[in-house]
Amino acid sequence: MRAYLDHVGIAVEDIGQALSFYRDALGLHVEAPEEVRAQHVRAHFIPAGNSALELLEATDPASPIARFLAKRGPGIHHVTLRVDDIDAALAHLKARGVRLVDEAPRPGAEGALVAFIHPAAAHGVLIELKQPARRGPTLEVKTIPFGDMQLTTLHDGPFKLDGGAMFGVVPKALWDRKAPTDDRNRIQLAMRPLLVEADWGRMIVDCGAGDKMDAKSRDIYGTDPEHGLDEALARAGQSRESIDFALATHLHFDHFGAATTRRNGALVPRFPKTRYIIRAAEWEDATHPNERNRASYLQDDFVPLQAAGVIDFFDGDRMIKPGVRVERSGGHTPQHQVVYVESGGRTAVFPSDIIPTTAHLQDPWVTGYDLFPLDSLAFKKRLIRDAIDREYLIFFEHDPHVAAGYIRERDGKRFVEPVL
After folding, report:
1. pLDDT category of residue 135 using cuts at 50, 70 and 90
2. Would residue 258 count as lying in a domain?
3. Domains in the chain, number
4. Closest of 260, 269, 265 to residue 300, by C-alpha
5. What is the CATH number of the domain that holds 94?
6. pTM over 0.85
């Protein structure tokens, strides 16, 4: 049995006063609170290096935390040790006659499984064992009405990238709890194209990596072509043949690789009846790659489209179709663009790699893949401020669990209210 310090739980009577010390006086980052209904407690996690502090606020006067406070007052409530297999850990302790509070694990914060060891067995310390949530990506296909349109979040399967590259200059100690890494330092991501349906037709915004990767690349990026875009389209009641337009935010392989496919040994457009809408300057960059971006611009993903005569090039920011417009953000690539969908007085935004996941809400959390990170930062600051103030519905193209939601702000801290 191997165990690592995960966090220290601190019972607090007045969360406001506690935050004024830990957040304001010490300057620590406090994550958005999570209510653990089974334990009648609200947990506020504070990352601190490779472990954390957990401020525990009772939500019921009969809860264990409330009883602890009534008996002992505020202070350290427990120490949490992280284990890989909580059932095996409990069996190990039982075999050695260790007194347990929980004979079997129960749900805890952050989707974890937890179990407590009795203080009598740990020299007066309440020990919590924690097995972190082991969740693969949530790849559901969901549709919502949006004014006169209909928006459907699709997927092209799971996807993994190096965690350090996805968070750039941000230290791993700050992002690791939000996006845990595997044994190859990769974080779990997803590829989530957006389907827009209107009276002018059906448009897919980005389309994922597709099914052309060889076995080595599939292993590197953790993709699963057997459960990709075709499957998602079928779940949405659509098919390759039902797509009228395909709009690219940019031409990196994980965003537009599925634009082409192999058929009878030849590379052909994936969607046979589709016009592919591509910013001309992005095409110029993609077809003339350099040493820095060559690994992301794979020519087989888009050059065959030109030979097939199915591309509609455009220049500058513009309305692509009624209710769908694009604005160049730059940053990630010089011509990277953000897509706005506007209908019925509402706005949805597909920011692509400017805000790839819900873990990228802080302004300086910009990916290491961005060629011009200061441009990304400037655009992102403006977009997130508008999203909060104007209640934009944000679609997170690479988040493994949340496809869309509203960015909220409370006490200066940002979080996402999931919708899809």
Report:
1. low
2. yes
3. 2
4. 260
5. 3.10.180.10
6. no
